[in-house]
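User: Can you recover a sequence for this backbone? Please restate the input before giving your answer.

Assistant: Of course. Working from this structure:
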């Protein structure tokens, strides 16, 4: 009897060891490791703020494209508490470098992100671009932007003031006001309210928001007593943000992506506006990724409106899955497109340089 129990115990230990080994071998833990990349701390200034960030370069790649990460809403560190690392590693795999920085007043950066307008954020993005562009080692690298959510109001402004090598916008809304109404609608639907109740409450909430925030010169904090005062000022400052006037005159290649199951931003509504304004003949295109969330993760596992809503086990699942937590083809679409447009631009410059060079003629 004792021997039988011993055998069972040994078998269990072996099974546990096999399972643990399989998890370590096949899990996404490696996607949170940057040991195979060259990581350098880089700082730059924007206004009165000093921003601290990390430049991550793929090894053994000459003049790689560099994607500047433009954060969405919230107090985000350069790698969003390591949550960006699977994305970063996917880009590195495709030979693309990354520069990302702590938002003002977060991590090692000075300032206060809640005091920014979308124009302030655009100024910050251009300052980051200029800093990376000035580095001698990257003088031949094409530099562009990869922005998320709130970056949809930032990057169209930026691309009207300069021409980056590329711009990728993930989950960008055109109108702040419309996005807020859609967010509320999906929130109420998840609570189980009827379509009539949802429509009524969305209309009432939108009316209250307009009364509270629509006049930036005279916002009324008393209408939102539970909202943090700094957050209230931030919303009041940006409530009228609308990317529509900027979309048609964005410079450089643009890829706008949405998750089909996005609960934060209406993918069909916003894609339709982008398609009306962008110029496909200038490599400006849009796409909706099937079975994807606001951040392009697999919606069957990770479709929440806010990171704070994630239960602990979902966070663990994300760590185990790594880049496999993203919807199929989502990350490949970004990496392949960046390489395509930057290589096409490099080839066109080579052709132009060759055709414009003086010809050697013999008399």
């Amino acid at each position: 009897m004792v021997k039988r129990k011993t055998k069972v115990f040994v078998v269990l230990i072996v099974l546990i060891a096999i399972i643990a080994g399989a998890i370590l071998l096949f899990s996404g833990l490696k996607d949170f490791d940057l040991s195979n990349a060259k990581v350098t701390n880089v700082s730059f200034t924007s206004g009165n703020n000093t921003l601290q960030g990390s430049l991550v370069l793929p090894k053994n790649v000459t003049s790689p494209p560099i994607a500047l990460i433009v954060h969405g809403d919230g107090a985000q560190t350069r790698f969003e508490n390591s949550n960006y690392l699977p994305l970063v590693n996917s880009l590195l795999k495709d030979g693309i470098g990354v520069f990302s920085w702590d938002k003002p007043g977060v991590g090692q950066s000075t300032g206060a992100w809640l005091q920014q307008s979308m124009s302030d954020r655009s100024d910050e993005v251009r300052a980051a671009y200029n800093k990376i562009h000035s580095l001698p080692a990257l003088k031949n690298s094409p530099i562009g932007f990869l922005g998320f959510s709130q970056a949809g109001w930032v990057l169209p402004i930026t691309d009207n003031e300069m021409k980056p090598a590329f711009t990728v916008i993930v989950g960008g809304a055109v109108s702040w006001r419309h996005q807020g109404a859609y967010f509320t609608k999906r929130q109420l639907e998840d609570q189980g309210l009827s379509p009539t109740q949802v429509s009524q409450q969305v209309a009432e909430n939108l009316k209250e928001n307009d009364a509270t925030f629509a006049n930036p010169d005279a916002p009324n904090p008393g209408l939102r007593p539970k909202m943090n005062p700094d957050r209230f000022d931030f919303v009041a400052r940006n409530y009228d943000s609308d990317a529509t006037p900027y979309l048609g005159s964005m410079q450089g290649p643009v890829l706008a992506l949405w998750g089909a199951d996005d609960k934060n931003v209406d993918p069909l509504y916003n894609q339709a506006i982008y398609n009306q304004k962008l110029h496909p003949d200038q490599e400006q295109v849009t796409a909706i990724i099937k079975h994807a969330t606001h951040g392009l993760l697999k919606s069957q596992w990770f479709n929440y409106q806010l990171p704070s809503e994630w239960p602990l086990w979902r966070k663990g699942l994300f760590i185990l899955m790594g880049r496999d937590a993203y919807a199929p083809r989502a990350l490949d679409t970004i990496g392949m497109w960046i390489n395509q447009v930057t290589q096409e631009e490099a080839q066109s410059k080579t052709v132009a340089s060759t055709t414009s060079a003086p010809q050697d003629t013999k008399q």
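That completes the design. Confidence is low (pLDDT under 50) at residues 17-26.
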